[in-house]
Model the fold of this input.
Amino acid sequence: MKARPLIGALIVFAAFAAACGGAKNPGMAVLKVHKGTFQIVIPAFGELQAAKSTPIVVPPESRFGIQTIAWMAPEYSSVKEGEVVIRLASTDLKERLRVEEAEMAKLDLEIRKKEKQLEKDKSDLHGQIAVTSVQRELADVYAARDETIFPKNKIIEDAIDLDYQNTRERHFERKKDQLEKRIAAELQLLQSKANTRRMQIKQIQDQLNNLEIKAPHDGMLVIDKYWSGEKYRVGMNAFGGQKLGSLPDLTQMEAKLFVLESEASGLKENLPVSISLDFEPGRVFTGKVIGIDTIAKPLGEESPLKYFETKVALDTTDPQLMKPGVQVRASIFVEKQADVLAVPNQALVFEQSKAFLLVKNSTKVEKRAVEAGARSLTLTIITKGLSEGDAVLLGNPTPARGGKST
Done:
């Protein structure tokens, strides 16, 4: 949008053109000053958006794989609470589920094999303990102890054998305890792996069950834009937590405007704004600036121009006309003063920080000290030293050939 820094300037320059046309000396541009409205206006463009809206997002738990948008309800269509607005598809999730289920089946088979092997080892060990216990009891019963009946060597051999059977029984008991601990640890590890697999399978199944995104409440569906500026559409990828659209509150709208970086001088919050809709330019809505981005950014990757994104709160909202995405043009009023005298910037002469105007009367040109006020790209308000109807020169007068100017 081309900048129009001053509306009041049109009146002043009209008077200037009339004055110049009547000047006898074509080298002397003369302007007759009249009171008017002085304005510094920043042009902007943008679109409407809801001040409040409920986001439509891909479920945050969608952490596995790439999902694609398979279907979307028409934009700006009315939807009811619980109605499907976006349906996703994910071949990657189905493949991941197949792999996880296959891994789970292998793990279940490993657990069963381990349980059978450990049960067999435990059974063998219990058999050894039982046999050793019987052998110890027999050795104890038949051990030679009476020195009057049995030779000393026999008594010693039987005592050694009984001690051996006692030691062997204790060994197998310790081995049984160690086996039970090892069995518990190995099975616990396998069960932990199985639980992790089950949790992953459940998460994937939940995601497959949540591929249908439903409206949280009644409203009108608005599709969001991708980072490139293109709106989301069927076939695009979607990730967990990604915002694909919204259900805006149409009772309170605001404007998202873009201000060219080179024209943003004086832009600040609370400045008044007038806004017109592109499809109904004759109607003007008012508002004020409520937010400005701190950094100017290009609107496209290849654009050399940078813009400040600016948010404007509207004083009134017309739900019949105002819909999210409607294009608007706006004027942001940095300065606006009525009934003031303003002159073109080139009419001012500055000497040692003091401002002067060359004022022409019927007999001569007077260099008059004045006080300058607000200044735009083209005009400056004169607050003191100038009266309505005065004629000022735009620059130094051109001396007449063979004489001096008056």
